[in-house]
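quick one before i forget lol
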Amino acid sequence: MKLKSKEFNLALVWFGAGVSIAEILTGTYFAPLGLAKGVAAILLGHLIGCALLFFAGYIGARSKRSSMECAKFSFGIVGSKFFALLNVLQLAGWTAIMIYDGAISANEIFKNGSGMWAFIIGAMIILWIALGIKSVNKLNAVAMSALFVLTVILCKIVFFGKGNVQFDFDISKENALSFGAAVELSVAMPLSWIPLAGDYIRESEKPFASSLTCAVTYGVTSCWMYVIGMGAALYAGESDIAKIMHASGLGFAALAIVVLSTVTTTFLDAYSAGISFETIYPKPKGKWISMAITVLGTLCAIFFPMDSITEFLYLIGSVFVPMIAILCADFFILKTDNSALRFDAARFAIWIFGFALYRISLGWNFILGNTVPVLVVIFLVTLAFGKFCAKK
């Protein structure tokens, strides 16, 4: 019974990760593809991204290490610190972006100024952090139940509205994504959670079940958010989901969706930033670092515009796709463990090659996106290098 409770709490955490305004807004970019192609790109991209999320979580659960501690298997002590630093930076960026999106959307519903809403959301995230990941389980259960009901209502408004809400939104195909680019944009969201996966399931007694729970729960929820965003653009003719909710008369329910979804998702980013920082420098408690990241993100959300996140998503992919390819090759096939090694220069060189390859591949129009070809190439290069070293 206790294990079932743990799996349920884990599912709540990853449901909260998937429900976010940022994911809904990203879904609007798929509208020019049309419903059938858009849904296909969303599903295919999430299948690829969530498979990698599963393997990242499984490595953490098997080894009982945080995600960035797992990087030691391939890159050594200094190498793991390097990726932990990059992870802290991307999580700080996500914290700012999530608070910014939440504040802008909340202000569309109740015009009190986006700066004030950013402050309120930031304060709630700090409260979540202060309570701690274990203490917020009951609070999460209540919040997630409310979010589930509210998102079902939102889905009904978007897809089954009576046409009483009128908007003017251009979904012309002039600047439309190709199918491959859409797949990659769908892969990008689960990829951004890869450096966090092990942080939440490293103490699991059932590594496979916990990793599968993480990947499936997040994947289904994230696809749902993408489809809501795409549907909003196609059928409601509006890219701002907050305007749809406000015009439909949801009022405080709309505000609850915006604020709760932002808090539950951003809490995970800020919390993991603290865990990753402990890999770099273990003395300060991760909780205090998480709070500092939240304060920084709140200030950035108040003072800087952050309306487009596609380039940020591609940057995350270029960092973590080659990293997870190398780690999977080492952990599952080569059985490499460089945890006691200070730095593995050869694998870091392979990662640099993978980073450059991903950036170059952004100019390709591959039907499966950029992640798959880069992942396959780097995985095979790592295996070839490992076999060569074993022979030597």
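fyi Residues 162-169 have pLDDT under 50 and may be disordered.
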